[in-house]
Design goal:
Number of strands: 0
Order of helices and strands: HHHHHHHHHHHHH
Helix content: over 70%
Structural class: mainly alpha
Oligomer: single chain
Strand content: under 5%
Largest sheet: none
Length: 383
Amino acid sequence: MERSNVSPDSHGTEPSRTQSPAARMSALWADGLGRASIRAVQALSLLALAWVAVVAATRVPLVTVPVLVALILASAMAPAVRWLAARGFPRSLAVLSSFLVIIAVAAGVVGGIVALVRQQAPVLAARAEAGIGQLQQFITTGPVALTGAQIDAARNEFQKFLAGGTLGADALTGLRTAGEIAAGTVLTAVILFFFLKDGERIRSFLIGFLPGNHQGKAQLAAERSLLVLGGYVRGTLIIAAIDAILVLVGLLILRVPLAVPLAAVVFLGGFIPIIGATTAGSLAVLVALVENGPVPALIVLIILVAANQFEHHILQPVFMGRVLRIHGLVIILALTAGATLAGVVGALLAVPLAAVGWTIYRTLSGREATAGDPPAPPPAPSA
């Protein structure tokens, strides 16, 4: 009997023997597991690329940090430059005027704070050390008694955490650190000036490397990112100042010594969201505990907690409602990652970079525009 050559039926009862190897390989990756594997490989490749970029950036902090700081400051100063240019100032003169005024104001504020803290730093350190000693004595003799070895171990772990990261390890005392700070400051000022003067041309030059059909979204993402950075810096400055004023008023009413330096420390700590001002204010609690007793120290702690809640529920929605459109848990994780990778500098830059990253993702993924966003540019003409 002659055997008929029948192709496999539609129910797949007999495996096909006529498919080419390429077709069989394509069918292997066409099911759900194959598609998930492809996405996993793509995700791992992107994570590897991001990790290489982060490691490379942390290896050259003298370049990376000034560029990032200058970019953040330029986005905050851009409205002043546009305001002067709209009133007839030449572009170069508007940039130079706003640059010199803001640098002078910032230098005066920072210099005054540093002078106040430095003037009373020995007294502040001595009283903080005495407060830590009293707190340690209370912990070792209180209801939940801890041994001295446990306290020392916890303190050593905390010090290791603060000293962690590439930048933290390099932050050593001596001429090298002073030289790096001076060079970084000068480089930041130079980069800031050119960002303010030629920012649009630099942005157009970088976007020009992208394909034409992607340049419109890239331009929109860049404009939104600048709005986010500028709003973040201005909002953080206002919130930190309000927190410092609230703490200063409370310390003056309670007659806690060193009120102005302590409020200055709270102001500086306010640039680290969520935990900065409260952590910096713990020094005021220690000073109040040593000089005024436990009741004023408890009142200072209540003031710090109330200021923190006032910041989260009122100040941040008012001043940064359209800027920090990310969850508080994401902010905490970003702070932890930034502090681990780059110490204090990483903690300062982590949140604005996370906000910019979310803004870029929201723009490139085609999500709806929010109020205050710049209008979308027209699509690039097709070739």
